[in-house]
Every structure is written in structure tokens, then in C-alpha cells.
Amino acid sequence: MKKLAPIILFVYNRPWHTQQTVEALLKNDLASQSELFIYADGAKQKNAPQVLEVRKYIKTIAGFKKITIIERDKNWGLADNIINGVTEIVNKYGEIIVMEDDIVASIGFLKYMNEALQMYKDKESVGCIHAWNYNLETRYKESTFFLKGADCWGWATWKRAWKHFNSNGEELLQMVEKKNLIFDFNRRNTHQFYEMLKYQILGKNNSWAIRWHASLFVLNKYCLQPTKAIVKNIGLDNSGTHCGDTNIIQQPIDNIKLKNIIIIESDWFFKTYKKQFLNLPNKKLQLFKLLKLFIPPIVLKIKNKLIRKEIKEKIKEEKYGWFGNYTSWDEAKKECTGYETDIILQKVKNTLLKVKTGVAVYERDSVIFDKKEYSENLLIGLLKAASENDYKLNVLDFGGSLGSTYYQNKDLLQHLKEFSWNIVEQENFVKEGKKTFENEVLKFYSNIDDCLKENKINVLILSSVLQYLENYEKYINNLLEYDFEYIIIDRTSFINKSKTRIAKQIVPEFIYKASYPIAFFSENKFLQQFKEKYTVEKDFFSFCDPQKYILDNTTHGYWKGFILKRNIVL
Fold this sequence. Notes:
single chain; alpha/beta; Spore Coat Polysaccharide Biosynthesis Protein SpsA, Chain A; Rossmann fold; 2 domains; eleven-stranded mixed beta sheet; 20 helices; 23 strands; 34% helix; elongated
């Protein structure tokens, strides 16, 4: 075997864990031929005794070819310590094996890592090697497989791959969103990496690992995974920075026979993971989240508690969701039942009244929430429009029900110099809106022209509405004739295809019995309709509908929004 890759070990304040990690490495045959670098982070005041104990221990380690200890003179934090240490060593040696102080290796760990580094060193599409995996019950014949992105519980990489590491989480998130990759980034909705990356940006975690995964993922690079783990994480005891208690079963094996396999993401992993780990209660919770996607602007759900109760009691083998690929709206409509708007109207009314009267804090889609959630991008668009109009905001909410979006955002907009919210809806909603909800700010109209007679609108909102309009292209063309300064589109359905697809949307019967046509737009074709008059200032995935839904094996649906600003005419 060629010269072995150096090992880098990151330690901090866990003496017992560190000792277990080191002793396990020393049981590897190649340990005595391997160079070890230990990066010991500096102490925070409360951790000083444990940090000193770790530093005392690492100075007693022997058995490796050479040991170099780097003691930080201050607390860098896990992320910065790892990023800096990996960069220093991999740039010097060209390749590296990375361990943290809670990863216990099997006796075949170093052999596997070094052989894999050698086998794939010239394969540009392979970005890293990983040593851990779930204890999956599989008949997959190979000892390794590939997943896109990266992993972090005992791993290795090359200088050629680490150079792509991007520490800017916001840039990575934008690339994931712009390329419509959320579903795949989350490993086909089996993991929550998208949310983890957002939390890193918001400062709720400082994960270097999610940025490493994203850095490779957006470049379409793969990580070699073992079918059975050859390391065990002993830090899942609330002793680590990011790890808490877990019920993950870990049964590492001693050795792996490497074989050169095709570099392609493995389908069996996702199927097996979903079957083994996404148990029935989790599936019900996922269903509950998916129900948020089932609404046109006036077709909304019943109360949160009732839905959860119905999910527990009535979910069987019902078919619901999006089906078919119809040649026309009329063709889809013939197979749809429609819905009883008066029944829906009463559900919306009763729920929203609780918000109006202060009984409930926040409502969305007829579901009561304990605290408010905001569509940050929609709010950004509203505040930007107001700031460019002498802090005056006059909204036309087309298809805005009885004012759900108004009640969601009004508290953050009331400071404006001028503020009005005007809803254009179907006649029965307008009648109920005027009777029960209308006030000095919130008004209801049956058509746009009546609204414009009384208001100087500077923002048009189109939220979860266009895809449910039979003549959506005609509606869009008509709306463009009004020359609104801003158009904010939200919760609109798209597909990863070049043509619009007409489908049939079926609502679960325990909510109400209904089905109706829905359009999944081609994003590029959709935006072309606005291109002549408007510029896209921001595009975003809708805040409560962020992930893709598979319509069939080749077609993914996703929900998105845009902030459009009218072009300046010279």
C-alpha cells in the first residue's frame, strides 16, 4: 500500500470518550504506520478542568508513527476548529482521515479508509469516504454504495474535494433552492438537511457538517458509504456539541471488502430507510404536513386537533394527492367532483373568528397554531414596496379568503403611514367578509375594478390561487394590464418539466369529499408571461410548502413564490 493518509483527531473536554477513540484506533494494524494530528480546542471557563484532563491524556498517547498536538490558546468552537484543522492538513498532505473524540473505530477502519482513498482518488465525482451507516436490514450484495453529498462520523477526503468546501451557508441554501433540489438535498425526504442548513444560517446551530454536505451536494458529488458501519458514535449521550440521546442502532463490523462500484446514488438505501426508520407515526406526521398543500385559496382545512385525531383514526389506504396528466382543464374537470363552498366557508369563518376575537393567536388554512408563523419572503416584499412608496402600503389580495394573510401580517404592518388590505373573492366570501370581518383596514370586493375605484393599490398578492384558475393565462394577462408596482406570488405549484401539467387533486375524505383540477406550471414558461413588464427581484420556496412531491417517477412538484417589480418605462 502507498503512503498512508494522515489521521486528524479533534478533541475538547471529554477525556473518557477521547481515550476510547484513541484506543480503538490503536487496535488497527495500520496505526503504527500512520501519522496522527490532534487538535485540542481551548477551554470555555466552565470546561477548563475537563479540557486540562484531555490535554494531559493526549500527551501520553503512543503507538502511532508520529504524533503532533496542536493546542488552541482559546476556544475556537467545534466548527472553526475542524474547518481550520482539516484545511491545514489536507492542503499539506493531499488527503486526510478525520475523526472526532466520540467515534470508535473497528479494527478494519484504517485499512478501509486508505484503500478507498486510493481507489477513488482520481474520480472527481467522489468527494468523500464515510465509515458509518444505519444498521439497515438489506440484501444489497455490495459492501459499499454511494449517496450524494457528504457525511461526518468518521470520514476521509482529498484536497481536490475539500477545496469546494463553502462556509457560507446562505450561498449554499440559495443554490439548493435555485436548482429546485430541496427534495433530493433532504435525501428524498428521509432527512431534514434543508432545515438544518436554514438553522445554521439563523445561528441556531454552527454545523460545519451540513455545509460540507451541501458543498458537495450542489456540485453533484458523491460520498462512498459502507453498507454496514465500521465505526460507532459513543457521543450520543448529551455530552457532545450537537448530539443528544438517540435510538439509532449501531453494530459496527470489523472489516469491509472494497470493490470498485458504479458511482450513482443507491435507490435501495432510500427504500430500506423509509421502511425501517420512517415508522407509521412519522408517516402520519408527514401526511399532516402534506395536507397543507391541498388547498385552493378558498378550500381550507378543519381544525388542527381534529385533523390530528382523524389522522390517527381514519388513515387507511385512501388515495389522495395529485394524479393524472390531462390534455386540458375540461378533461380533468370531468373527473372531478368539485366542492361545496358554503361548507368550507363556514369552516373558514369559525376558525378565523377565533383569531379576530383573540381566542386563537394565529390561523392558516383553517388550522389553529400556538404561535404565529410568517412567510418571511412575502413580508419582505410588502415592506420593500411600502418603503419605496413613502411607507404607504395598499394591498390587493386576489383570492384571499376571509383575510388569513391579513391577520397573519397585520401586527407587523400597522406602524406604516398608510395601510389597507383589500380582498377580491367569490361572492359568498365577499358577503360574509363584509358582514363579519370588514373594518377600516380590511375590505372585500367582488372584482378588481371595484377595489381600484376606492384604493390606490401598489402590491398585488397571488397566493395559492393561479394554479386553481381554469383560464390561468387569461387571468395573468388581465392582471398585468393593471400595472401594479409589485406582484408577490406565493405557494404556487410548479414541476421540473418544460410544459404545464394539468392534474387532478383529491382531498382526503375525512377532511371533506372533493376533487378539482390543478395546474403544475413550468417555472420558466410561467415567468415568461411576466418578463415584458416585470423583473424578478427574489424567488423563494414557499415557507410552509418547501419540499417537492413526486407526481410520478420522473415528475416532481414543488411550491414556490416570487417578488416581481414593475419595469421602469423610459
